[in-house]
Request: fold
Amino acid sequence: MSFLVEDAIEAANRAAINQCDRPLTDVDIIILKGTWQRLEYDQMAAQGSYATSYLSQDVAPKLWKLLSAELGEKIKKSNFIL
Reply:
């Protein structure tokens, strides 16, 4: 059974609901999909018309913190798809 990006997004969405009582935002999903594709934040930013600094310094750290809290281990861009 292969794990697909849709499965990862679904699991992350459950984590967001459990931790924050809200689903993932569109920009959270852009980060997850981009990370799955091994894109850099500037590439993700270009796809979504966002500033690289907004993704890398605001949205992504909050997303990784949320996932880390839910899973009980440090989640970051470099280990999200391992």
In short: The CA atoms of residues 1 and 76 lie 24 Å apart. The mean pLDDT is 93. Helices lie at 5-20, 26-36, 41-48, 52-71.
